[in-house]
Structure formats: structure tokens, C-alpha cells
Write a structure and sequence with these properties.
homodimer; 196 residues; 2 domains; elongated; Tetracycline Repressor, domain 2; 10 helices
Chain lengths: 196, 196
């Protein structure tokens, strides 16, 4: 069952991944079965195994694909020469954008990473740690250049990362607030409090 | 099994509640068994039933006791005549205080409320909604009196409530940062961004 499935079309695979993320989000990874996934995608369970070898494989692909998007954005940002404030604003807006456009994937990646198997679990956690350290370095640079107040950089990073998760509530909420207003308010609250 | 257990000493009951919160937090409510709880408290499962009738009863008591603490603090604050900034600072500090002093209870109440049975589930969700509305009213008052910028009050509330949850990371983190520094940094970041 564990042989690589090279012949699956990218579209079909993408469709299975999207259905899997929805099921993981709704039921949790542990409670989701391959049978449910087959039903959801309108396939026989046996033919689902022609496309993927296990639900762990799907979880891994979701988590590492989300990590790739965050990493690519941060790499690009680190390479440009804008100030720490603009960089942090871009990061806050990108996190909100990710939650709005890849909600199920980000939700699953935030909660179900603990079900990754080794070596993926350690690798994924190291990448998250590095991501937080790189954000802390931007904040430290902002402090050093007199842009930001002398907060503890890691406290600031985790406050921001927690705060942008409030977007999840809006996804579930019935209130009609535009995503632009939410993003603008979050940037104002989180960034203006940090700036000198 | 469902008769009220009036004869249990408050201390023994408190001890069972604390062990239950620890197990719910570590294993999740669904995966926790009465047998595990009996082992943890050093009792026979049968004699545990002399003290409590079900694990749902324990979850309910944890969730509603946490709600009582938050509500009592907010009631007291609403009655005094300090400005919106001071009230919001007191609320942020109280949330941090609760996470530091009743970590397991708050953690379980934030995540496992969905396993409450009716009529408790609806009642609990209504109380949370009311709590958020009352915080939003304080922020709206701050906007009306020119203290705060014109953010959407509910966006500000959920941003703050999400941000204070970053305290959970520090509980798990190896980094030695004092709770006072975390609280001061959070108040500065969250409140200064809101103030005019």
C-alpha cells in the first residue's frame, strides 16, 4: 500500500487533499477514516488507495504545504529592505490572507501536526521554531533601530501569532465584517502598540 | 448513578476536579475514562461514583466555575468608574492571571465546552457571547469618549482574547520569562495599539 503513487493526476490529488482537510477539520484527524474520505470524494475505498497510501500522507502534505507558503513569504520579505514595521505589517496581513484563503489547511496544520509521524514531526516543529525565531529577529531589529518599544521579541511574536488566529472566530461568526476591516483593525492594534 | 452527592467533602471533591482537569487537558475529554480518574485520585472506580455521577458533571463544574470567575471580575469592573483604558488593562491582566493560576481549568473550558450536554451547552455559549458583548461595550465606550481609535469593537475583543491565549505557549515553553514581563508586554502591545 505504501508505494509512491506517481500516476495520480495533480487535479485528482488536489481534490482528495481538499476533502481530507475538510474532514480533518470537522472530525479531527484521529476520528477521520479512509472510508469517509472515499465517500466524500465519491470513490471506492480501494481506488482511493491508488491515489494515496494513508491518511498520514495527506496530513503531512497539508502541513508541509502550509509551511512552504509561510516560508516562501518570509524569505521574500527578509530579502527586501523595508523597515521592521512594514515587514511585520506584511506578515500579519499574510497570516490573515492564509486563514481566509486556505482556512481548512491552516486550521488542520495548527492543530493536527501532533499526529505527524517521525521524522516529519520533529522536522515540522523545527521549522515552526525557526519561523518564530526569524519573526523575533525582525522585531529585535525594529527595537535596535528605535522603531519598536523594548518588548521581549518572542512575547511579541507569540502575541501576534495568537491574535491573528482570532480570524478563525470570524470564519465561524455570523457577523458581516469585511475581511479588509478585520485586517486593518488587527494591523492597527498589533502594530501601533509595538511602535515607538 | 445520577443522584446528587451531597455528602462529599469539599476538599475531596476539589481534588477530584483538579485531577479531572489535568486528565481532560492531557488526553482530551472524550479519551478520558472514569477508570483513569479513579487511578489518578487513588480511589476505586466504584467509590469515585460516591463522589460524582459522571465525567460530564466534572466538565460542567470546571466550565461554569471558570465562567463565574470571569463574570465576577467583569461585574466588579463594570461597577467602578475608571476609564475604558484602565478597564481593558484590568481585563487583559485578569485573563493572564487566570491562565497562570487556573491553567488546566481555563484550557479545558476553552476547548472541551463542546462536550457539555444541553441545557448546559446553550447556557454556556450564551454566557460567553454576553461576556464578549460586555467587553465590546467597554471598547465602544472608549471609542465614544475619544480614548480609543474607531476599530470594530468585536474585532478588538476577539483579537485581545486570542492574544492572551499566547500565554498557553509560555506555560509549555522552556524560556524563562517572568509572568510580569509577559503581562506588561501584552498590555502594552494590545492597549497602546487601541488608544488614540
Amino acid at each position: 500500500m505504501a508505494r509512491p503513487k506517481q500516476t495520480t493526476s495533480p487535479n485528482r490529488r488536489q481534490q482528495i487533499l481538499e476533502q481530507a482537510a475538510g474532514l480533518f477539520k470537522t472530525n479531527g484527524f484521529n476520528a477521520t477514516t479512509m472510508r469517509q474520505l472515499a465517500e466524500q470524494t465519491g470513490m471506492e475505498a480501494a481506488s482511493l488507495y491508488n491515489h494515496i497510501s494513508s491518511k498520514e500522507e495527506l496530513l503531512r502534505e497539508i502541513c508541509f504545504s502550509v509551511a512552504n507558503d509561510f516560508n516562501a513569504h518570509l524569505l521574500q520579505l527578509e530579502a527586501d529592505d523595508s523597515c521592521a514595521s512594514r515587514k511585520m505589517e506584511a506578515i500579519i496581513r499574510f497570516h490573515i490572507h492564509m486563514l481566509l484563503t486556505r482556512y481548512n489547511d491552516v486550521y488542520v496544520s495548527n492543530r493536527d501536526w501532533k499526529h505527524l509521524k517521525e521524522p516529519w514531526l520533529t522536522n515540522f516543529l523545527n521549522q515552526r521554531k525557526q519561523y518564530e525565531n526569524r519573526l523575533a529577529a525582525i522585531i529585535q531589529h525594529g527595537i535596535d533601530t528605535g522603531k519598536f518599544k523594548a518588548v521581549h521579541p518572542h512575547v511579541a511574536v507569540l502575541t501576534m501569532l495568537s491574535a491573528v488566529r482570532s480570524i478563525e472566530y470570524w470564519q465561524r461568526s455570523k457577523k458581516a465584517i469585511s475581511s479588509k476591516q478585520i485586517a486593518d483593525d488587527l494591523v492597527m492594534m498589533l502594530l501601533k502598540g509595538l511602535e515607538q
